[in-house]
Write a structure and sequence with these properties.
single chain; 393 residues; alpha+beta; Alpha-Beta Plaits; 5-stranded mixed β-sheet; 5-stranded mixed β-barrel; 31% helix; globular
Length: 393
């Protein structure tokens, strides 16, 4: 349950014991996590997705603890998320709202990866062959999962399709073996057919364990040898700044006026999407702009449901795939951009006191012996041929 050092909160949360299921106990490298919920279905799905992270018995160190309240029959009278001694009442999200489940999932995962200290957690796929680890670094919709599965079909070991863990101590890539979230198109492209009787569906995707697709293909660790940055063609125009799309639970004119006043931030569009609002902004330096925007959201009690970033055009996969060597100085900025925790990282905030330059130099040291390439996305077979030609020769 939440931290006993906050007696009032602990007593309030303890009074919910009749509503809560037994905790789900997980371990993410050096971080233990306990998750309680008033919904057995919610916890059951997390258990399925993260079953390879489960641990038995009490935590070996003080855990990060969450209480997920999806119903309104609790002391706050509304859905809420509690993390140790912090409460996020979700008053603008109604019971059964389609975004509540997704928001809670994303919030918990973001809080977890931000507090892992033993590894850098990257938005990237990862596969291995004969202990040669390959990172597939890319934004969403660039085909990381599809390419990773095609390489597994060709004999590579699977480490991750979307989140990769790079150890700060031994420079190894570690598996992040949560369930894959697969679109039907991905299965068609790779030729896999999971056992649908054992498969759950969530957010329009199938939740599939890698063993259902390719038994005994899951690896544990591999030495980092190749970093492939997936990019679309034509190359993005960066001189106008970076773009972010922020999905909010609602919008107010006062909030929008303050966003327009942020230095260097240009509001590109404001679009209603059902009960939510999609705000698209552009800024020369996106990290600082997003930090300021999140502070404004907290001040106006707005929920950030999701953030998508990137100046890249969406790939068509119709242009021939090509591979081009990069230098470390060319590859590292993109790798930094794909650190999952970003400016919320405990490593950055606590160890380096917010000094991003120190994090930059540590990451450069970790990946300094790897080979870096830009992989222009194209037909799946061509991309896989290029990767195999690089790694297997």
């Amino acid at each position: 349950m939440p931290n006993r050092n906050n007696p009032e909160l602990y007593q309030t949360a303890s009074s919910l014991a009749g509503l809560l299921t037994p905790p789900l106990r997980l371990r993410f490298y050096d971080l233990d996590v306990n998750i309680y919920a008033d919904s057995a279905a919610y916890l059951c799905r997390l258990q399925w997705m993260y079953r390879r992270f489960q641990v038995e018995g009490p935590a070996t160190r003080p855990p990060l603890e969450f209480v997920v309240l999806m119903r309104s029959d609790n002391p706050w009278g509304q859905p809420a998320l509690i993390r140790n001694d912090t409460v996020w009442p979700l008053g603008t999200v109604e019971d059964g709202d389609e975004y509540l489940d997704e928001y809670l999932y994303a919030k918990i995962l973001n809080e977890i990866v931000a507090r892992v200290r033993s590894h850098f957690i990257l938005h990237a796929g990862a596969v291995a062959h004969a202990d040669q680890g390959v990172l597939l670094v890319a934004d969403s919709f660039y085909g990381k999962t599809t390419l990773a599965l095609e390489l597994v079909r060709r004999g590579f070991r699977f480490l991750s399709d979307d989140i990769a863990a790079l150890s700060r101590s031994d420079h190894q890539i570690y598996a992040f073996p949560r369930a894959l979230e697969l679109r039907q198109g991905t299965l068609q492209l790779t030729g896999y057919s999971p056992n649908l009787a054992q498969t759950q569906e969530w957010r329009g995707k199938l939740l599939v364990d890698i063993d259902e697709l390719e038994p005994e293909s899951l690896g544990a660790t591999a030495t980092l040898r190749y970093i492939l940055h997936l990019q679309a063609s034509p190359a993005p125009r960066r001189e106008s700044g970076q773009i972010a799309s922020i999905l909010l639970d609602r919008m107010s004119q006062d909030f929008l006026s303050e966003v327009r006043q942020l230095p260097g931030v240009q509001v590109l569009s404001v679009e209603r999407r059902g009960s939510t609002t999609l705000l698209k902004i552009q800024a020369p330096e996106l990290t600082g702009a997003l930090r300021q925007l999140e502070e404004l959201c907290q001040a106006h009690r707005l929920l950030v449901l999701s953030i998508g970033t990137g100046t890249r055009c969406q790939p068509t996969f119709a242009i021939p795939a090509t591979l081009r060597a990069l230098s470390l100085s060319q590859a590292l900025p993109d790798l930094l951009r794909h650190l999952c925790a970003g400016y919320h990282s405990a490593v950055l905030l606590d160890e380096y006191k917010g000094d991003a330059a120190q994090l930059y130099f540590e990451l450069a040291g970790l990946v300094g012996c790897a080979h870096y390439y830009q992989l222009q996305v194209g037909p799946l077979e061509q991309m896989a041929d290029l990767v195999c030609g690089l790694v297997l020769n």
